[in-house]
Amino acid sequence: MNRICTAALAAFALSLVLCALLRPLLRRLKAGQYILGYVKEHKDKVGTPTMGGLAFVCSAVIVGLCFCGTSSSEVNLTLVITAGYCLVGFCDDLLKICRKDNLGLKPYQKIIFQVAIAAIAAVYCYVNGITSVNIPFFDISVDIFWGIIPAVLFVFLATVNCVNLTDGLDGLAGGTSFAYLAAMGALTVISSGRLSLLCFSMCGALAAFLVFNVNRASMFMGDTGSLALGAFIGCVSVFSGNMLYIPVVGIMFVVSGISVIVQVIYYKRTKRRVFLMAPVHHHFQMKGLSEGKITYVYAVITAVMGLACLSLA
What we know:
It is a single chain. With about 325 residues, this protein is an all-alpha fold. Helices cover about 70% and strands about 0% of the residues. It has helices at about 1-30, 55-70, 75-100, 105-125, 150-165, 170-190, 195-215, 220-240, 245-250, 250-270, 280-285, 290-310; strands at about 130-135, 140-145. It has a two-stranded antiparallel sheet. The longest helix is centred in the first third of the chain and has 27 residues, at about 1-30. It is globular and about 50 Å long.
């Protein structure tokens, strides 16, 4: 436990320094966020430095390597996959900045990259016998054998894109991910100490980033950070056998994803909207709730679900 606390504090300190150095650099490079015109509530955020995810991702990776070494293949693969998704997000953010729009990579390009990287995790699980899945709230696990491959592919695609969709308000994705990873770190502290240490290292790095990202944010994580966060969550959950905890503890990520799917399907069928705007956190914002309150509620719900799982584990 002392080692985990030390790693979390080290990640916090390193991330704080990197964020402080990265923010003015991004400003000088004019790496500012482009805001969609129809999101009127965010018009004053145009030009806020983005790609801040580089700071907390690099911090978590460096601390993870320092404290876990390179002897654990699961730790190594988690960090490599996280870095891979971070690179995809970085390319997406860079294209947006260069083009001065909010398009970035084409959807099919993102999917190809995401599937290719997720396939590595899926094959790794199958080859190394990580095919058992723990059932939330019950002290049982089920071996799904070859089914782990499509399951892991689905989990990664769903998690990465749902976390990405949740990244729409100041501190929302960061705060919700912090609560999720704290719960996952506690769940895995006995069964997989190294993965637990990684979880709390990312928590420390995120805590420092949130200093710059809570309302009003002076820096955004961008797809650089949100895709990497989704991949990291996918890795630690899948490799620990806890992938089914994602829709439970990460219920608010699921809500973001489902709200978009419902909105799109309903609008195509009826030309009417279920929500004022999707993902649903924008609906709440347009109803008059502040960004801070929405972010707080998302994080609290995630934390409560995490405590529920821990108490019944």
